[in-house]
Amino acid sequence: MAFGTRVRAIAVVALTVALAACSPSSDSSSSEPSEALTADTGATTVTFRLWDEVAAPAYEESFDAFMAQHPDIKVQVEVVPWADYWERLPLDLQSGDMADVFWTNTSNFGRYADNGNLIDVGAALGSDHDEWTESVVALYERDGTLWGVPQLWDSIALYYNKDLVDAAGVDPTTLTWAPGGDPAAGDTLLAAAQALTTDSAGLRPTDEGFNKDSRATFGFNAQADLQAIYLDWLGSAGAIFQDEDGAFAFASPEGVAAFQYLVDMVNTWYVAPSAADTNTNGDITRDLFLQGKLALFQSGPYNLKTIADNATFEWGLAPMVAGPEGRVSVVHGVAAVGNADTENMSATVDVLKWLGSVEGQSALASRGIAFPGVVDAQQAFVDYWNERGVDVQVFIDAANGSTIPAPVGPNVNAGANEITPILQEMFLGTLPVAEALEQAQEAGNAAME
After folding, report:
1. What is the rounded distance in angstroms from the CA atom of residue 211 to the CA atom of residue 216?
2. Residue 407 in domain
3. Same-domain check for residues 57 and 195
4. pTM score
5. What is the tens place of the pLDDT at every residue in 10-29?
6. Which residues are within 8 A (CB) of 409 and not within 5 positions of it... i.e. 6 or more apart?
7. What residue spans of 250-404 are helical by DSSP H?
8. Which domain range does residue 307 map to?
9. N or C: which end of the chain has fewer CB within 10 A?
10. CB of 409 within 8 A of CB of 441?
11. What are the DSSP calls for 116-166, one per residue?
């Protein structure tokens, strides 16, 4: 399964990323693209493709403003659902049916850049544009060339159930993990998670008679979730996921310490849901949080709307859990790229310029869909949530702090397909951590060769 920005279509997680900057994906089919020149107006038609039906109306609003300023260009929005998106993309590029501008993510753009399918954005747009989020820009640079215009981004923070943390006397803003859960090394997360985990009799994991098979509440969402959990854990341990050449490099002593802590939360300390559940339904921890059965839920802004709309208790946002190297968040983003084979190069470049402007991204921000890639458009997103009593500053702080790169490379998805089942077995407790990481790294790298 492909790495991607977090969308509800990639709910079973392991190595899928919602990597998450946008709302639930669409299951609707795409509209048919128009001819390059519309017969009624003579305007040049530029097609724009994405996979998210919730973001699509914001883009339509944005392009209405664009077309008012550029009456000689008509922009048509196509939605292709995530389930079909990546299968159709190479076929449509080959047949000449691909949109002029389209969404991509970090794990997929590399092969198309290498194949000459994409417009060199750096050359086409130059440096005279509104400021873009630098961490997202870096994700779409390859061999010294920028290939995408940042659209959406997300980072990681900690959602918490205020009733549960208050009752347990836990401060969610200062949580830190250390190898082995050693308090002498500064660990506060394990004790907090134990205080927040109870069985049906109200006993905690540290109490005699605690029944792990009848847990009523869980402390923390330790699971095989790359974006929200283990990439961040690797970074905060001082480990890396990929080296400078794109090879997987997580089977280091620091990587083992990071994963061992997460696996122990599930299988030794019993403060996280079973991997038998989370391996097959990555959203189960979000659902447990909404049911009041999970106290601490580390995740991204891609879950803001769902939680805000459905939580029946008081909740809040705190900084993500820190580790030996402090707080280290993955920052992932979606970019808009241009089709190098477009028949309407000038108009396509004009659309790309619009998509990289404050005005072009204001609809995405003001509707609260995602943090926009244009820095000066981000306040509208902040204001949207402030009006609803939610302070999203923790996500901005995470993005501006220490970060770990999202998965990149033209063949990284092939590696992901090999890594996923091995890491799932590790989280189940059926493979020792060090052995599993060595196996996964070797198999993943072999698949990327």
Report:
1. 10
2. no
3. no
4. 0.87
5. 323 333 333 433 433 333 44
6. 107, 110, 242, 246, 415, 448
7. 253-267, 275-278, 284-290, 304-310, 345-355, 358-366, 378-386, 393-400
8. 157-329
9. C
10. no
11. T-B--HHHHHTT-S--B-HHHHHHTEETTEE--EEEEEE--EEEEEHHHHH
Query: What type of residue is 74?
Result: K
Instruction: Please list, residue by residue across 269-299, b when 16 or more beta carbons sit within 10 angstroms of its beta carbon and e when fewer do.
Output: bbbbbbbeebbeebbbbbebbbebbbbbbbb
Q: Per 3-state DSSP, what percentage of the chain is helix, strand, and coil (rounded to 5)?
A: 45, 20, 40
Residue 443 lies in a domain: no
Counting the structural domains of the chain, the total is: 2
In sequence order, which residues have a C-beta less than 8 Å from that of residue 214 and are 6 or more positions away?
199, 200, 201
Whether residue 317 is found in the same domain as residue 194: yes
Residue whose entry in the numeric block shows the structure tokens 């998805």: 413
Nearest to 18 by CA among 287, 277, 279, 302: 302
Domain C-terminal end among 280, 310, 329: 329
User: What CATH number is given to the structural domain containing 225?
Assistant: 3.40.190.10
pLDDT digits (tens, 9 = 90+) for 155-173: 999 999 999 999 999 999 9
326 Cβ contact partners less than 8 Å away, ≥ 6 residues apart: 236, 401, 402
